[in-house]
Write a structure and sequence with these properties.
The chain is α/β, with parallel strands linked by helices. Helices cover 32% and strands 22% of the residues. The protein is globular, with a radius of gyration of 17 Å. This is Phospholipase/carboxylesterase/thioesterase domain-containing protein.
Length: 256
């Protein structure tokens, strides 16, 4: 297990926030190690529950890294502290984005992937707020930088977001399209999104809007799947499709 902390500062402010990340759970590949994916839990959860589910998937060539978010006050919960990758208020395109929290978590995730062997393909996936974090990392990968301007060091090969949303969607298209290199990276990054049509926590419309925002920004290698009558949870059919998609996109051997 591992514990990490990041202190993020801004040149224009003296206030600094320290983020203490919780325990990290690792599921080792049962076969040849071909890919490593950091999988991110939802609000108030931890890495343990997802590591148990991921271990049961028929993907023997993937190493799964399941970190635990810092415990922090969350505006959405009236300031109640719980594990969260960033602070979130109401789910709205007009709401403020916690850039500092997003960047700290994105850097923590990238740090895991930076030590993987060069022949191993790397990706990020997540559920709910974890999916939001995965999609933010996807935009940082395409732009080549975090929101604070520091370079993003990882070449992601796959991103999965289940029952989530896209933070920082405002202005994303303009940021991507002014750079040929960013537009090229965005167009080539495979993204899989899944969302239940009866989701009462992160409404289905936010999944649709996220897919639309990514698409018009230039993330054209994107698949969006809806699950009729499903709420804020995953079902075996969805996880089967995640397995098939990862196997194809990452070129995995012997996964079945």
């Amino acid at each position: 297990m591992s514990y990490s902390h990041y202190t993020m500062g801004s040149g224009s402010r003296t206030a600094r926030r320290t983020f203490e990340f919780g325990r990290t759970y690792v599921v080792r590949p049962k076969g040849k190690h071909q890919a490593t994916i950091v999988w991110l839990h939802g609000l108030g959860d931890n890495g343990s529950s997802w590591s148990q589910l991921l271990e049961s998937l028929p993907l023997p060539n993937i190493k799964w890294i399941c970190p635990t978010a810092p415990t922090r006050p969350v505006a959405l919960l009236g300031g109640f502290p719980c594990t969260a990758w960033f602070d979130a208020g109401e789910l709205s395109e007009d709401g403020p984005d916690d850039w500092e929290g997003l960047d700290a978590s994105a850097a923590h995730i990238a740090n895991f992937l930076s030590t993987e062997p060069p022949d191993v393909k790397v990706g990020i996936g997540g559920f709910s707020m974890g999916a939001a974090m995965a999609l933010y990392s996807a935009t940082a990968c395409a732009l080549g930088r975090y929101g604070n301007g520091n370079p993003y060091p990882i070449n992601l090969r796959a991103v999965v977001g289940l029952s989530g949303w896209l933070p920082g969607s405002r202005g994303l298209r303009n940021k991507i399209q002014v750079s040929h290199e960013a537009a090229r990276r965005a167009a080539s990054l495979p993204i899989l999104l899944g969302h239940g049509t009866c989701d009462e926590v992160v409404p289905y419309k936010f999944g649709e809007k996220s897919a639309h925002s990514l698409n018009i920004a230039g993330f054209w290698n994107l698949t969006f799947k809806n699950y009729e009558g499903i709420g804020h949870y995953t079902v075996p059919k969805e996880m089967d499709e995640v397995c098939s998609w990862l196997t194809t996109r990452l070129g995995l051997e012997g996964s079945r």
